[in-house]
């Protein structure tokens, strides 16, 4: 049974796609994993339609979640229009009972969609968690292997900078494994220069 939504640490996570424009060296997908510690079966043989995803999400009790997170085993912003449609549907039904909505993303949505999607997030998305992963374009390419090359790094920075005008909470994340303190500080400086927050995450290897 494929997993569309799953619970983890008090939040509900939504898995809409396995597509990704990166091949990050640390990604579980390279190790033959079909899931993670969060859920065993995140690999989708077919992507759910927006209606299938809505049906799944409507079966949940939102009073018990602190956040609704679009994440999954791919880059969720491949499904940007479907995410926004789902959020609209859920807000229509649950109103202020719907918990805050977060998207975990690599920040390449505008490249992927070929347009500026950020204004559409206003009033729908409460938090954007963007994987910074590196402090220079060259390091980023070596680590994440985006199909767009070094342009993806600048696109990610631009995405974060613009997004803060439309989304209440915009956060860069970096993983602490093998990261020197001075690298963390440089990441913090980059985040500060763009007016966004930095969160240092613990590495999870399964």
Low-confidence parts lasting 5 or more residues at pLDDT below 50? 34-39
Mean pLDDT comes to 90
Largest sheet: 7 strands, mixed
Which class best fits the helix and strand makeup?
alpha/beta
β-strand percent reads 15-25%
Widest sheet: strand ordering: 1-2-3-4-5-6-7
Order of helices and strands: EEHEHEHEHHEHE
Oligomer description = single chain
Helix content: 25-40%
Task: Give an overview of the whole structure.
Strands 1-2-3-4-5-6-7 form a seven-stranded mixed sheet. It contains six helices and seven strands; from the N terminus they run ββαβαβαβααβαβ. The radius of gyration is 16 Å and the shape is globular. It starts with a strand and ends in a 5-residue tail after the last strand. α3 (109-113) links the parallel β4 (101-105) and β5. It is an alpha/beta fold and 206 residues long. The longest helix has 15 residues, at 80-94.
Brief descriptors of the model:
alpha/beta; 6 helices; single chain; 17% strand; globular; 31% helix; 206 residues; 7 strands
Helices and strands in order, then pairings?
Blueprint: E1 5-8, E2 11-14, H1 50-58, E3 67-70, H2 80-94, E4 101-105, H3 109-113, E5 127-131, H4 137-144, H5 151-163, E6 169-175, H6 181-194, E7 197-201
Parallel strand pairs: 2-3, 3-4, 4-5, 5-6, 6-7
Antiparallel strand pairs: 1-2
């Amino acid at each position: 049974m494929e997993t569309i939504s799953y619970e983890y640490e008090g939040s509900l996570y939504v898995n809409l796609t396995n597509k990704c424009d990166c091949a990050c060296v640390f990604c579980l997908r390279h190790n033959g994993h079909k899931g993670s510690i969060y859920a065993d079966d995140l690999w989708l043989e077919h992507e759910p339609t927006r209606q299938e995803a809505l049906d799944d999400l409507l079966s949940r009790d939102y009073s018990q979640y602190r956040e609704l997170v679009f994440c999954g085993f791919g880059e969720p912003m491949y499904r940007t229009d479907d995410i926004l449609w789902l959020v609209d549907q859920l807000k229509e039904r649950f109103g202020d009972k719907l918990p805050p909505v977060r998207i975990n993303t690599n920040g390449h949505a505008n490249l992927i969609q070929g347009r500026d999607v950020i204004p559409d997030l206003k009033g729908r998305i409460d938090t954007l968690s963007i994987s910074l992963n590196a402090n220079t374009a060259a390091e980023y390419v070596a680590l994440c292997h985006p199909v767009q090359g070094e342009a993806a790094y600048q696109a990610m920075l631009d995405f974060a900078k613009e997004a803060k005008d439309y989304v209440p909470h915009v956060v860069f994340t970096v993983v602490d494994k093998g990261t020197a303190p001075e690298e963390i500080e440089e990441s913090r400086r980059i985040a500060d220069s763009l007016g966004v927050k930095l969160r240092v995450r613990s590495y999870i290897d399964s």
